[in-house]
Write a structure and sequence with these properties.
Membrane topology: Multi-pass membrane protein
Strand content: 5-15%
Largest sheet: 9 strands, mixed
Family: Belongs to the TRAFAC class dynamin-like GTPase superfamily. GB1/RHD3 GTPase family.
Helix content: 40-55%
Number of helices: 19
CATH architecture of the largest domain: 3-Layer(aba) Sandwich
CATH topology of the largest domain: Rossmann fold
Order of helices and strands: HEEHEHEEEHEHEHHEHHEEHHHHHHHHHH
Catalytic activity: GTP + H2O = GDP + phosphate + H(+)
Low-confidence stretches: 19-63, 145-152, 553-575, 580-590
Structural class: alpha/beta
InterPro entries: G_GB1_RHD3_dom (IPR030386), Guanylate-bd/ATL_C (IPR003191), Guanylate-bd_C_sf (IPR036543), Guanylate-bd_N (IPR015894), P-loop_NTPase (IPR027417)
CATH class of the largest domain: Alpha Beta
Shape: elongated
GO molecular function: GTP binding; GTPase activity
Mean pLDDT: 75
Length: 590
């Protein structure tokens, strides 16, 4: 009995081991074809190489969200847009036709932009919770960030999940969070910084200008430069080109003057951007420009997060290491930025933009910055050095021009060409010495091309002075009619000779040329008298000058004169003059 029971057990186990793999394979095949039934929303996470990955902590498949770089700054400082990534995020069925709210953070590098963006992510994922900042022992994840002095973010990154938010008026909008490369790092040119800042400002509806400790004058000047670089790329419009600008002043150290938060920030910003009559014109223009670019400007003053955050190389974002005053104001700042009633839908020329439309604007704007239509922004040193050298060029050129006017300008008499050339060489050397004697920024190498520019412009002026001097030469002024008279005389003689010897065709051709030349001479005289049809008169002068120069170069005039003399001899030989009859006295002598 026991042996039979053992045999039955072995048979059952054999059947299980034989059919179990087939059953598992079938189940896996069916599951792979079925849609993903996971009810879990996308969760924030750190960088991942793949758009989807399996969680080791969940039994269900979870879609991982993360930062995606859509604008890439290459090593040669050119720009590339990852259209596939942009389309994957903004053209998904859930958001592509929703009006978009684009929130961007921009500013100098290593000032905590990505750190701030991660708190925005916490709010967007937990905005329904009272204490949305999370556990005090939880590390801060999301956009990649770290402490230190080297840059972290490059180009423009956007969060791969677009958040759908219900506004108080009942509309559902798509909120896009965008992190940008910091300006003025050691590896980026000014054009790189200007392009990234300008592009993020053009795309966003809320631009957070992240600053440290204060709003200084150079911060406003850089903002003016970057926004103007963005406005150049946009179509001209009577409306303000950009929407909301928020000055976020980090590490604010003067709460006794202006309190932390938006109220103190508003009073502080009003003082900073105030235009007064006793300000220098340059300072007034900066402030007027900023006001003309944005429809809404506000400010928020945020305290320092604490020494542990600033000095601990192992700081990972745990709230327990951040000062309570910072957390208190952070809990005010993030809802102030991202609460549904404060979200500004992206507008261009007064039209609300959807995620689908934002993709097209992204593509259109990056094409402009990839080309060479826009001027390259210059550093303050380079711009000052250029202005300094151009001023030296203008001074030296003006000196040359004034001295040449004393030599041959105005009512000065005609000067021999050789003397004019010698005077030109002397004054040109004097102008070059004057240029080199001016203290200029940029160094010798930088100034060399401006010296070449000066020499080229002086040579152009010299050509004008040659023409002006030649116009005073009476023989030069009579060159055109003299040339035409010579042509008329020659064709007249040739017509008579060739007609006499029976070459009627050549005679007719000469007569035709004679008639055309005579008409040309009369036309030239009318133009000189009336001042009309000056272009035609210039053509006649050029043709006459070419004939004159050709004659003087190849001794053609001498040959024409010799031919005319020969023809005159032949003419008198063919048509001898009647001889006078001898008078009576002569007859007597004969």
């Amino acid at each position: 009995m026991s042996e039979a029971r053992s045999a039955l057990g072995d048979a059952i186990l054999g059947w299980i081991f034989e059919f179990l793999p087939l059953l598992c394979r079938s189940l896996l095949t069916v599951q792979s074809k079925a849609p993903n039934p996971s009810p879990f929303p996308a969760l924030p996470g750190s960088f991942a190489d793949k758009a989807y990955e399996w969680s080791s902590e969940e039994e269900e498949s979870v879609r991982k969200a993360g930062p995606v770089q859509v604008l890439i700054v290459k090593d040669d400082h050119s720009f590339e847009l990852d259209e596939a990534a942009l389309n994957r995020i903004l053209l998904s069925e859930a958001v592509r036709d929703k009006e978009v709210v684009a929130v961007s953070v921009a500013g100098a590098f290593r000032k905590g932009k990505s750190f701030l963006m991660d708190f925005m992510l916490r709010y967007m994922y937990n905005k329904e919770a009272v204490d949305w900042v999370g556990d005090y022992n939880e590390p801060l994840t999301g956009f990649s960030w770290r402490g230190g002095s080297e840059r972290e973010t490059t180009g423009i990154q956007i969060w791969s999940e677009v958040f759908l938010v219900d506004k108080p008026d009942g509309t559902k909008v798509a909120v896009l969070l965008m992190d940008t490369q910091g300006t003025f790092d050691s590896q980026s040119t000014l054009r790189d910084s200007a392009t990234v800042f300008a592009l993020s400002t053009m795309i966003s509806s809320i631009q957070v200008y992240n600053l440290s400790q204060n709003v200084q004058e150079d911060d406003l000047q850089h903002l003016q430069l970057f926004t103007e670089y963005g406005r150049l790329a946009m179509e001209e419009t009577f409306q303000k080109p950009f929407q909301s600008l928020i000055f976020l002043v980090r590490d604010w150290s003067f709460p006794y003057e202006f309190s932390y938060g938006s109220d103190g920030g508003a009073r502080f910003l009003e003082k900073r951007l105030k235009v007064s009559g006793n300000q220098h014109e340059e300072l007034q223009n900066v402030r007027k420009h900023i006001h003309s670019c944005f429809t809404k400007i506000s400010c928020f003053l945020l305290p320092h997060p604490g020494l542990k955050v600033a000095t601990n190389p192992n700081f990972d974002g745990k709230l327990k290491e951040i000062d309570d005053e910072f957390i208190k104001n952070l809990k005010i700042l993030i809802p102030w930025l991202l609460s549904p009633e404060n979200l500004d839908v992206k507008e261009i020329n007064g039209n609300h933009i959807t995620c689908r439309g934002l993709v097209e604007y992204f593509k259109a704007y990056i094409k402009i910055y990839q080309g060479e239509e826009l001027p390259h922004p210059k550093s303050m040193l380079q711009a000052t050095a250029e202005a300094n050298n151009l001023a030296a060029v203008a001074t030296a050129k003006d000196t040359y021009s004034k001295r040449m006017e004393e030599v041959c300008g105005g009512d000065k008499p005609f000067l021999a060409p050789s003397d004019l050339q010698a005077k030109h060489a002397e004054l040109k050397d004097e102008a070059v010495r004057l240029f080199r004697g001016v203290k200029k920024m940029g160094g010798e190498e930088f100034s060399r091309r401006y010296l070449q520019q000066l020499e080229a412009e002086i040579d152009e002026l010299y050509i004008q002075y040659i023409k002006h001097n030649d116009s005073k030469n009476i023989f030069h002024a009579a060159r055109t009619p003299a040339t035409l008279f010579v042509v008329i005389f020659i064709t007249y003689v040739l017509a008579g000779v060739t007609g006499f010897i029976g070459l009627d065709i050549i005679a007719s051709l000469c007569n035709m040329i004679l008639g055309l030349t005579l008409i040309t001479l009369c036309t030239w005289a009318y133009i000189r008298y009336s001042g009309e049809y000056r272009e035609l008169g210039a053509v006649i002068d050029q043709v006459a000058a070419a004939l004159w120069d050709q004659g003087s170069t190849n001794e053609a005039l001498y040959k024409l004169y010799s031919a005319a003399a020969t023809h005159r001899h032949l003419y008198h030989h063919a048509f001898p003059a009647p001889r006078a009859e001898p008078d009576a006295a002569d007859r007597k002598q004969l």
